[in-house]
Amino acid sequence: MGKDDYGVFSLEDRVAVVTGGNGGIGLGIVKGLAEAGATIVIASRNQEKTDKAVNELLSMGKKVTGLQVDVTDERSIASMVDSVISHYGRIDILVNNSGTGIRKLPQDSTLEEWRQVFTVNVEGTFLCCQKVYPHMVKQGGGKIINVGSMASVFGNDWLASYSASKGAVAQLTKSLAVAWAQSNIQVNAILPGWVYTTLTAPLKDQYRERYDHIISRTPIGRWGEPEEMAGCVVFLASNASNYITGTLIPIDGGFSAKG
Q1: Which of 66, 186, 192, 233 could bond to 245 as cystine, CB 3.0-4.6 Å?
Q2: pTM assigned to the model
Q3: What is the pLDDT of residues 163-211, one digit of tens each?
C-alpha cells in the first residue's frame, strides 16, 4: 500500500515527532507513519541507534531526521521541540513512546528504581505533551498519541512500577484530552499487549513458563510484532480520528477479551 492510497488516513505534509522511535515498538510506529506520508523526527537518547534507524528509513525513500533528547530532562525536551519548530515550522503529531521498566517484585524494588520508571514513563510523557502544546494551539490543532500498555489494565507482579506508571499515562491521556479538546488537540493512547522486541525477547528463554502462559492466554496465539502497532497510530494521527479523543485502544491479540 503506497502513501497515495491512504486517503483520509494520509499524513502527507504532517510533521511527526516520535520519542524512543529508534527501535522496537517506536521504530515500528515510525515506519507506519512514514509510509502514510509523514515527515518523521526520531527523538531518542541513543544517537548512534537513532542514526542507524534514520539511515534505514532514508534508504527506503522516507522523509526522516533524528534528534537527541533525554525525556527525563525538561531543558532537553524544550530544546528538541524548539529544534523541530525551527526546522519544520510545526509539529502535527507527537507520539510519546519513550519508556522503561524494571522487572522486580514490588517488595524487592528500591525507591530509586520506582522513581526512575515514573520519571521516564510519566514525567517524560507529560513534559513532551506540555512543550508541544503551545505550538499545536498556534497552528490550530494536533494529534498526541501516548504509548501505554495493557499492564495499566491488568496487575503484574514483577512489573509493579511499570504497571503503575502506565496506569498514570492512561489517566494523563484522558485528562489532557479533556483539557485540550477546545484547542482541536486530540489525545489518545494505544495499549500494546505482549510485543516481541529486543527487550522482551529474553522472556522466551529465561522465563519460559511465563512466556508459554502468555501465548496460551492470547487468542491469536502469538506475540505481536512492532509493526503491528503502527496501523492504529496512523489512524489516531490522521483526520479519520478527528472526533476521537481520550480513548485507550488495546492492541493485544485479544488478550483483554479472553475471560
Answers
A1: 186
A2: 0.94
A3: 999 999 999 999 999 999 999 999 999 999 989 887 777 777 777 888 8
- Which grid coordinates are listed for 52? 542507524
Known catalytic residue at 162: yes
Q: Report the 10 Å Cβ neighbour count for 254.
A: 13
Of the residues 88, 162, 196, 207, only one is catalytic, namely 162
Domains of the chain: 3-247 (3.40.50.720)
